[in-house]
Amino acid sequence: MSMDAVFKALADPTRRALLDALRARNGQTLSELSERPDMTRQAVTKHLAILEAANLVVSQKRGREKLHYLNPVPINDIAERWIDKFERGRLRALADLKRTLEREGR
Amino acid sequence: MSDRFVYVTYIRTTPETLWDHLTKPEFTRVYWHGVWADCEWKPGAPWRLVFADGRVADTGEVVEIERPRRLVLKWRNEFKPELKAEGYSRATFVLEPMGETVKLTVTHEIDRSGSKLIEAVSGGWPSILSSLKSLIETGKPLPSQKAA
To answer: A53-99, pLDDT tens digit by residue?
Structure first.
């Protein structure tokens, strides 16, 4: 599983939106994921294939249904590749600070 | 309704080596915060997951075991009362050789929705699996997963 495939799969707003949809509710069918007004079923099918090839989405048969799950492991592999354990705490603190300030600024 | 997550990683190794890394304390301790499983690894055997400091994290039993292909565990949390109250979940490990690699699929599920247990365990697995992959492929676990 190449990191290139993961970066390419993530470099598209529609595919990131599909990952967000699975993060909000894991284990959705193609029909459920195609309920978005801005996307055809064919487009969702195509994007899911790219996400599956990058191992960011995993599908499993449950009875007659095929359910799609978000697989965060490749993203974690990338994060671990460049972030070491001493940086992790500082980065989390910075992310918290950014969230807090942006909430106050709204 | 049930809650479930499915995590997949591809590791350059053999199913036998990966199986040993999933079951033997001398390996799990290295890539997983010092955690190890106390289990005889046969059908029906009790299973306990033990923290580095000796506290029991989770308990259950071996439901199915077929080295080096498939392992199913009954799994209940033991250290947080609200998670323990949810009762038993099921963790399934499937190892499939794929060319030079082994595809490892970890599925964890419980027969209820809005499970806090599934939420809690799902957060831990990605970094454990990344560390396992790193240990097997490079000989080193990830720093974030070393036992304290």
So the answer is: 999 999 999 889 999 999 999 999 888 888 766 677 777 888 888 88
The answer to whether B8 contacts chain A (CB < 8 Å) is yes
What ipTM did this prediction achieve?
Answer: 0.86
Residues in chain B within 8 Å Cβ distance of A26: 4-5
Domain locations in chain B as residue ranges: 3-136
Given the structure tokens 């079951």, which residue do they identify? B23
CATH for B3-136, options being 3.40.50.1010, 3.30.420.10, 3.40.630.30, 3.30.530.20: 3.30.530.20
Sequence-ordered strand ranges (E) for chain B: 3-11, 36-39, 46-50, 56-66, 70-77, 89-98, 101-110
Chain B contact present for A28, CB below 8 A: no
Do A73 and B126 lie within an 8 Å CB cutoff? yes
pTM of the prediction?
0.89
